[in-house]
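Reviewers of the previous submission asked for a worked example of the structure-prediction workflow described in the proposal, so we include one complete record here. The input consisted solely of the amino acid sequence. No template or homolog information was supplied to the procedure at any stage.
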Amino acid sequence: MKKTFLTVAALFLLWTCSLPAFASERTDSLTIKIGQMVMIGFRGLSVAESPAIAEDILERRIGGVVLFDYDVPLHSPSRNISSPEQLSLLTLELQKLSAIPLLIGIDQEGGKVNRLKPKFGFPPSVSAEHLGGLNNPDSTTAAAALTARTLQAMHIGLNFAPVADLNVNPDNPVIGKLGRSFSGDPEIAVPNILLTVKTFNREGIIATLKHFPGHGSSTTDTHKDFTDITNSWSAKELEPYRALIASGYRDAIMTAHVFNAKLDPIYPATLSKSTITGLLRKRLGFRGVVISDDMQMKAIADRYGLEEAIRLAIDAGVDLLLFGNNTSWDPAIATKATEIIRSLVEKKLVTPRRIDLSYRRVMELKKQYLKPRT
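From that input alone, the workflow returned the following structure tokens.
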């Protein structure tokens, strides 16, 4: 099936020019650049069931979408995934709508965090904890390859994995108890994370290390409430990031909404300039795309207004704002987010140069992985 991707030359022009080649009188370059900073979750098993996401892609030029198997606000097992055949058609439909290749993302970690479940017709998967317990390179590589090839077959280019959190607190309700960490020991975790990333990349899948600067020691869940890790976190939790970045890793890193007064006495990591720009960018040297964890999670949404949260996240250094639309549901979230970012630029609270930096990082990632196909 033919996909309407840009040619390599057009994508290069898009990346290098101030006015992208696909801009029209209805869509200026700022609209495009802002849109590329936004990733949205939506409801529907097909584009026909979700005209709003089509409009977000066509009019607001959003940079990506995130897929779920379960609709949390509706308590419904029907969201975006019902079978391999259905999902493959959906992702092709979504890509066909977009002049710029979409980042189609999913949480396919394996084990309990697994959107592509056997009940839908997908192969079974194992958890990071299981693989860390084996600590066998062949097992980790095989598991990562199966995941990557499954995603490729479904035309999904971005995986929100592997988890780089260390299992500091095995009773952690959102990391340790769900088996999402390879190990509490960096000597075990780092090689398994590195193998997973290399395997994903070899199969053409963008990896996402998460959740920076470390969520493994927490006792609460940022989906549900404010999460303070000041007294439980240690610099050891940076080791997976330090090691991967030193190895040349430049895909994506997802922020955590955790509060850590050792790193910032005021803001949680996603909104913290000292954590994202100061620590991740300057001290650790990360040059890839920084993706926020879901901006609708309660650790952020219950304490900050949408405009303030977006402003702080951009100022902190976040390149891609994720609105999963599955902690809460807002059919207009893409419109609100893009209009807020434009307003922040117009009010000179965010500079055009700052938008350009994120746009260029996102476009560089897309150019590397989302190759034109015929």
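Residues 204 and 369 are 6 Å apart (CA to CA). We consider this example representative of the routine output the project will generate in years two and three.
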